[in-house]
């Protein structure tokens, strides 16, 4: 891979060449996240400082097509695609959990308290330890880090800390080794009963769980996972 051009050498000409190169390879222009992964384009931060943001840069370069990917039809279609994928993935996990544990022991969209905001995708009652599951699909490793940081904030209240949680990562292109590397780099580590798993790891984990004969709270969450 070619080294990224130094800050002082970025010109409208070579930036436009970079955009056109990306277009030749992918038949579209890059988003901000994709730009940060291209050594032949300035970083999105540099673009923000020098040009006032990516939409303005696209207009300056007179690129055809969408200038702002956060608005309009592109944004709407992207949201619909994400929502559809989320529904399909959650349905897939729900069916798996029902088959594994039985309907009485699997709660979908489980509310931790009465405020109707603090919830998890699934809560499973097990005789050897109840647990919750949060399903997500990161587009890449960088996005995965952002997703996890956001989820750790969500699962930081006293209500959610009562229970172990599995962050179920559903992008098959991200390897277990990459998850482990990301965890090691985190300045704020996960708690002992918070785990990031791939689907294969999750299935192995569930094989060691037994459905419960009663809905009791776990007494020692650190021992569940």
Q: How would the global form be characterised?
A: elongated
CATH topology (level 3) name of the largest domain: Restriction Endonuclease
Runs in which pLDDT lies below 50 for 5 or more consecutive residues are 214-224
Mean pLDDT: 80
Top CATH class of the largest domain: Alpha Beta
Major sheet summary line: 5 strands, mixed
**Strand content range:** 5-15%
Q: Architecture of the largest domain, according to CATH?
A: 3-Layer(aba) Sandwich
Quaternary state of the chains = single chain
Radius of gyration: 22 Å
Number of helices: 8
Computed structural class: alpha/beta
The ordered H/E elements are HHHHHEEEHEHEH
Order the strands across the largest sheet as they lie in space: 1-2-3-4-5
> N-to-C terminal Cα separation, in Å?
41 Å
The total strand number stands at: 5
Q: How many separate domains?
A: 2
Overall helicity: 40-55%
Task: Give your account of this protein's structure.
The protein has helices at residues 12-26, 32-36, 44-51, 54-60, 72-101, 141-154, 176-185, 199-207; strands spanning 106-111, 119-124, 131-136, 165-169, 194-197. The chain has 225 residues and is of the alpha/beta class. The protein folds into two domains: 7-60; 75-223, Restriction Endonuclease (3-Layer(aba) Sandwich). Strands 1-2-3-4-5 form a five-stranded mixed beta sheet, sandwiched between helices. The model is unreliable at 214-224 (pLDDT under 50).
């Amino acid at each position: 891979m070619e080294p990224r051009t130094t800050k002082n050498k970025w010109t409208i000409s070579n930036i436009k060449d970079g955009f056109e190169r990306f277009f030749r390879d992918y038949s579209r222009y890059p988003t901000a996240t994709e730009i940060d992964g291209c050594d032949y384009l300035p970083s999105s931060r540099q673009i923000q400082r020098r040009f006032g943001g990516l939409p303005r840069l696209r207009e300056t370069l007179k690129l055809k097509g969408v200038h702002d990917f956060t608005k309009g039809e592109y944004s709407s279609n992207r949201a619909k695609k994400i929502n559809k994928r989320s529904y399909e993935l959650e349905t897939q996990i729900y069916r798996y959990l029902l088959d594994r544990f039985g309907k009485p022991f699997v709660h979908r969209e489980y509310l931790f308290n009465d405020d109707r905001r603090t919830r998890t995708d699934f809560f499973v009652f097990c005789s050897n330890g109840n647990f919750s599951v949060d399903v997500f699909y990161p587009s890449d490793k960088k996005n995965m880090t952002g997703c996890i940081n956001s989820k750790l904030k969500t699962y930081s209240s006293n209500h959610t800390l009562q229970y172990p949680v599995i962050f179920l990562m559903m992008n098959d292109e991200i390897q277990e080794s990459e998850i482990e590397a990301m965890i090691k780099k985190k300045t704020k580590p996960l708690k002992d009963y918070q785990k990031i798993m791939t689907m294969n790891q999750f299935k192995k984990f569930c094989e060691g769980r037994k459905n419960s004969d009663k809905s009791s709270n776990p007494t020692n969450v650190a021992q569940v996972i």
